[in-house]
């Protein structure tokens, strides 16, 4: 009786997720059933298979899905997906830009949250201007926990539609697009309430898994067959132990860091399994995976293990790393202001380590965030950008510039001045920097 109940629960949960395929189509019942069948079969196959450890994680992940399929946004498009190895695709991504402090902003309510951190409403002209400037990839940081409308993790359909609108503008411009879960890492080292996001601790694992599985199930429903290889899913932003001394660095001697890495591994495997279970183009979609903090140092730790794809292939997975390197030049205030060979050596050595550890092993790598904060040292920053992009491009690692809109220096405070693109005028605050980036890609 216990086994029968468990099996029944699995099937009902999976059929509920599969029903999302037909939730908003308005077509005849016969047509709806025909559309739902492939996804239903794929999910049931994932549950019944016992050939790999990944399949066991799939059944656990999909059982968690319970969002309201009646209001969820459904992708009704159809595009041919050109399957290529991730290592080849990321080379085509070349250079990117982050729509920072916008859809990831967490103040305000509803759609108003987009401007709650001081950035203007995103427009098509803004995206067109980026494409015209040579930007090939748009990374769109997105926060979701403030846009959940019920206790079943259902995302406000208006929010999902807003995300789709901006994604579509960039896709129409021929750009690659990266979407993720961004500022949903719970900000306290404490018991996390349900619906509050995720936190990679033992205490918060169950609520975290419920959150990420339901959010990604809805993203996968809204973005599937209507999007080809130009759309990339990045599972998480900078997963970390917020509110602890190990928030921004991985301590290999700490049991807390080790446990966090293990919980992150399980969360990322669950997300990948949910994405693949949605079938269609998402069975082939490139998926980017960060380590703790998305730092290169934690990615290189022996405890960081990439999730297993359904066929154990590495060809659809990307290692996502953030590099404000070296910290003393690129982020710290005041830190180091002048560019030098010793500054250069820090990032050239890191690129080599990432290449030797991941690319040589068959994994693609991209730098999801990078930049050098404005210290009123334009000449030094231009030199840094020239060398940084030249080095990364040689290894086939595209870099996506972090932009939070803050560029004016006041009172010699230099931290977090990563404003580069004037979103309202579609111009660049520092034309020499975007020129340096483009010159190294020729």
Fold blueprint:
Blueprint: H1 2-18, H2 29-48, H3 53-63, H4 86-93, E1 95-98, H5 124-132, E2 137-140, H6 157-172, E3 176-180, H7 205-222, E4 231-234, H8 255-277, E5 287-290, H9 296-299, E6 317-323, H10 327-330, H11 341-357, E7 364-370, H12 378-395, E8 399-401, E9 421-422, E10 427-428, H13 431-439
Parallel strand pairs: 1-2, 1-8, 2-3, 3-4, 4-5, 5-6, 6-7, 7-8
Antiparallel strand pairs: 9-10
3D architecture notes:
This protein is of the alpha/beta class and 442 residues long. 39% of the residues lie in helices and 10% in strands. The strands form two sheets. Strands 1-2-3-4-5-6-7-8 form an eight-stranded parallel barrel, surrounded by four helices. The radius of gyration is 21 Å and the shape is globular. The longest helix is centred in the middle third of the chain and has 23 residues, at 255-277. It is built from 13 helices and ten strands. Helix 5 links the parallel strand 1 (95-98) and strand 2. 46% of the residues are buried.
Major β-sheet annotation: 8 strands, parallel, barrel
How are the strands of the biggest sheet laid out side by side? Answer: 1-2-3-4-5-6-7-8
**What is the number of domains?**
1
Give the overall form: globular
Give the integer mean of the pLDDT values: 89
Q: What percentage of residues falls in helices of 4 or more residues?
A: 25-40%
CATH superfamily: Glycosidases
- Which fold name fills CATH's third level, the topology? TIM Barrel
The CATH class designation is Alpha Beta
What series of H and E elements makes up the topology? HHHHEHEHEHEHEHEHHEHEEEH
Strand content: 5-15%
Which value, in Å, is the CA radius of gyration? Answer: 21 Å
Q: What is the overall number of helices?
A: 13
Which blocks of ≥5 consecutive residues have pLDDT under 50? 1-56
Name the structural class: alpha/beta
- CATH architecture tag: Alpha-Beta Barrel
- Terminal-residue CA separation: 66 Å
Number of strands: 10
Protein name: Endoglucanase
Domain Glycoside hydrolase family: 113-405
InterPro entries: GH, Glyco_hydro_5, Glyco_hydro_5_CS, Glycosyl_hydrolase_5
GO molecular function, one term: beta-glucosidase activity
């Amino acid at each position: 009786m216990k086994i029968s109940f468990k099996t029944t629960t699995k099937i009902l949960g999976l059929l509920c997720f599969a029903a999302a395929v037909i939730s908003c189509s308005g077509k005849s019942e016969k047509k709806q059933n025909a559309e739902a069948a492939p996804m239903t079969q794929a999910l049931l196959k994932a549950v019944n298979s016992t050939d790999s450890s990944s399949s066991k994680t799939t059944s656990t992940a999909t059982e968690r899905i319970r969002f309201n399929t009646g209001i969820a946004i459904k992708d009704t498009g159809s595009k041919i997906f050109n399957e290529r190895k991730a290592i080849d695709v990321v080379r085509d991504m070349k250079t990117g830009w982050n729509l920072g402090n916008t859809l990831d902003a967490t103040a305000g309510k509803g759609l108003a949250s987009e401007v709650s951190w001081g950035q203007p409403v995103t427009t098509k002209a803004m995206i067109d201007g980026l494409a015209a400037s040579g930007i090939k990839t748009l990374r769109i940081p997105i926060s979701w926990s403030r846009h959940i409308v019920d206790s079943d993790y259902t995302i406000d359909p208006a929010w999902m539609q807003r995300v789709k609108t901006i994604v579509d503008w960039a896709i129409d411009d021929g750009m690659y697009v990266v979407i993720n879960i961004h500022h949903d890492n719970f900000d306290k080292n404490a018991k996390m309430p349900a619906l509050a996001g995720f936190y990679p601790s033992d205490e918060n694992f169950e609520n975290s898994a419920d959150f990420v599985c339901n959010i990604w199930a809805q993203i996968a429903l809204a973005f599937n067959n209507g999007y080809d290889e130009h759309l990339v899913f990045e599972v998480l932003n900078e997963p970390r132990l917020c509110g602890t001394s190990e928030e921004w660095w991985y301590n290999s001697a700490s049991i807390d860091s080790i446990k966090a890495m293990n919980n992150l591994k399980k969360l990322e495997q669950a997300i990948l399994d949910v994405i693949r279970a949605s079938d269609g183009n998402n069975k082939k979609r490139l998926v980017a995976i960060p380590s703790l903090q998305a730092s290169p140092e934690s990615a290189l730790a022996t405890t960081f293990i990439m999730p297993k794809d359904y066929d154990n292939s590495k060809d659809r997975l990307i290692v996502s790393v953030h590099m404000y390197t070296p910290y003393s030049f690129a982020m710290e205030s005041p830190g180091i202001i002048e560019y030098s060979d010793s500054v250069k050596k820090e990032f050239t050595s890191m690129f080599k380590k990432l290449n030797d550890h991941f690319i040589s092993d068959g994994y693609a790598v991209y730098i999801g965030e990078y930049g050098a904060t404005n210290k009123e040292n334009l000449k030094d920053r231009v030199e840094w950008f020239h060398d940084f992009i030249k080095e990364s491009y040689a290894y086939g690692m595209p870099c996506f510039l972090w932009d939070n809109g803050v560029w004016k220096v006041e009172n010699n405070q230099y931290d977090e001045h990563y404003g580069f693109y004037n979103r309202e005028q579609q111009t660049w605050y520092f034309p020499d920097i975007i020129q340096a980036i483009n010159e190294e890609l020729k």
